[in-house]
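Give me structure tokens for this 209-residue protein.
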Amino acid sequence: MFIVGLTGGIGSGKSTVARDFTALGVPCIDADQTARDVVEPGEPALAAIVQHFGRDILQPDGTLDRRRLREKVFAEPAARAWLNQLLHPLIRERMLQQCQQAQGPYCLLMVPLLFENQLQSLVQRTLVIDVDEATQIRRTMQRDNTTEEQVRAIISTQCPRQQRLALADDVLNNSDNVTPEQRRQAVAALHQHYLQLAAATDSTAPPSR
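Here you go.
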């Protein structure tokens, strides 16, 4: 399977672009959804989290209390390191399984922190959705009903824009001056490009760069 890693800073519109690709029949694996799946009730990871943090990490219905977990790991670097060591390999393995099971010449792997977590080796191509920082802030404030200070704090933990662009194989401009039709046309052009790349790639080869 030829895998395209789709990434971009917060508020760049990754999900919108992913939906454009999905409308063209391209399977999309969402790392955020996979991260939620591996801690569902019945999953070994959730049992390990409960054993480590205690049962008060659960909601009354037995699901993970994500807010409480975030509070715990934010306050304790060692706890955050333990959690990452538990979850990251599981998420990586689950994402690769989903990619290999996907139907079609290629699939998208949408990972917000693709470069930050050094996951480029999982994909053959990287596509960055790009907007300027002011747009990131405004969109995220509107979407999440949060403050500018909070959004800037998130941006500061992510890969700097210029570094992200330098690492990208392909860039899609998703600024406000790009109309939905122009964005869809850009996606369609990339789709054709990826179809050609996938056809030229030995589908039995493991992901490499």
